[in-house]
Amino acid sequence: MTDTTTAPAPAFVDLQVHSTASDGALTPAAVVQAAADAQLYAIALTDHDTVDGLDEATEAGKRLGVRIVPGVELSTHFDDDELHLLGLHLQSRDAMRDALADLRQQRIARAEKIVATLNAHSIPITLDAVLKEAGGGAVGRPHIARVMLAGGYVREFREAFDKWIGWGRPAYMAKDKWDVADAIALVHKAGGIAVWAHPGESATPTRIQRLADAGLDAVEVLHPSHPPYLVQRLFDHTEKAGLLPSGGSDWHGTQEGPRKLGGQLVPKVWLDWQDAKVSARAAALA
Prior knowledge:
An eight-stranded mixed beta sheet has the order 7-6-5-4-3-2-1-8. The protein has helices at residues 28-37, 54-64, 93-120, 127-134, 141-150, 157-165, 180-189, 205-213, 228-240, 268-285; strands spanning 12-17, 42-45, 67-78, 81-88, 193-196, 218-222, 244-247, 266-267. The protein has ten helices and eight strands. The longest helix is centred in the middle third of the chain and has 28 residues, at 93-120. It is an alpha/beta fold.
């Protein structure tokens, strides 16, 4: 007799997505709806320098059957290079929110400088238009790019970065430096785990170990910018350093480009390993 039973479909997660709480195109609830449509088991909402979208996402997740991992993405510095750090599994949103208040003001000040530089180059956008585009969320360069596109000053979104506001371009402004060790400590204070986001080729064994010594918990191994050879290399380096793997699409709600929600096929077991890390740390502090 033939066995007609089928094994359950493998469960996948996406541990880096963004919403309109920072520079994403969709509201937190709409992001969760997209995750449900993609049949994802869980997503981490990791908006830039804010946790303001988490309540809405969590409520939508309960309604739609998608687990929401509370997260944030922080811009830090390490060895004079910018390093993006994810805080995942945050237990205290208030602790993170209070610490990020000053960073949000720094983002506005940075946007004001970028707008002034663009004005000096005969691109007459206004800070008010950028803040309106941000809709009360953490202000970022994508908001400026959208205002430039709406005004007809660039032909497409990416051109704003490539020609004007990307690194090395006339209106690029670096963020104020924040040491990665301080950011890791903040994530731990909020009860979360610290993840090196999309490290690319810069994640050498030496740098990973140094960050592990500073308290890093995991490395984002799977990311759209990582080709297969690099994924394997990062996984090996991460395992050797005693850290956990993580992965995400870095989806901002758009349909263009390589960043597709759930496109990295991050296995649920990676989330299980992170859960165990969070539980073990909490038990040790109890």
